[in-house]
Amino acid sequence: MARITDQTKIERLKQSTMKLVVERGFGGASAMLIAKDAKVAAGYFYMHYSGKYEMVNTLLQDVYQEIVDKLKELTQENYPFSETIDKMIRHIFAIASAEPIKMKFLYVLTNDYSFVVDAGIRKNIFDVIIQLKELGHTERTLDQTITEDDLYLILFINTIQFINQRFKKSTKRVKFSKADEDHLLYLINKILK
Predict the structure, then answer these.
(1) How far is CA 28 from CA 103, 116, 127, in A?
(2) What is 53-192's CATH superfamily?
């Protein structure tokens, strides 16, 4: 018999997972707590996900895919390296402004030693990072010694850290300004040259 999927319940599970991972860390967000917070039966959770690791990786894939899709779009449109970086960083800020929970979720997972990113997600991200690195090296706008790991750290991890510093400093909803984006881009460009 086919599973009946209620998309509102699935969305509640996703939102509860991100919320609890942010509040309690990966280790503190159990499948039972997620189901309870989403107001669904634990059996419903397990009907769709084998456990919290699968659920978290599914969400992480969704969040990263949104960023990777934008980066793929920018590289396919043949923007120069520096313009691609500019548009990419501004896109990440737009996500953080519209859905802060996504950036907080990324922040927690990138800093949680008990969570390991799925190899497929990592490959998907690094395939695009490698293209970006090659573009920067070809244009000679990127320091030739910078590796794809360096580029990932400089672009993604630093951006996630920068945004989350702002979140931590405020008890209200954070509004990012163009000056915030410009400042981070200034720092990133200093490192990349």
Answers:
(1) 18, 15, 32
(2) Tetracycline Repressor, domain 2 (1.10.357.10)
Alpha-carbon distance 44 to 41, whole Å? Answer: 5
Give the pLDDT confidence of 63-79 residue by residue, as tens digits: 988 998 998 898 889 89
114, amino acid identity: S
In angstroms, the CA 190 to CA 61 distance is 30
CA 188 to chain CA mean position, Å: 18
Token output for 6 = 């209620």
Looking at residue 157, the DSSP 8-state letter turns out to be I
User: Are 109 and 117 in contact, with CB atoms under 8 Å apart?
Assistant: yes
| Global confidence as pTM | 0.89
Q: What are phi and psi of 114, to 5 degrees?
A: -85, -5
Specify whether the CB–CB gap between 81 and 135 falls below 8 A: yes
* 3-class DSSP state of 112: coil
For the chain, what are the domain ranges? 53-192
pLDDT averaged over every residue in the chain: 91
* Proportion of the chain above pLDDT 90, given as a percent: 70
Above 70 in pLDDT, residue 1?
Answer: no
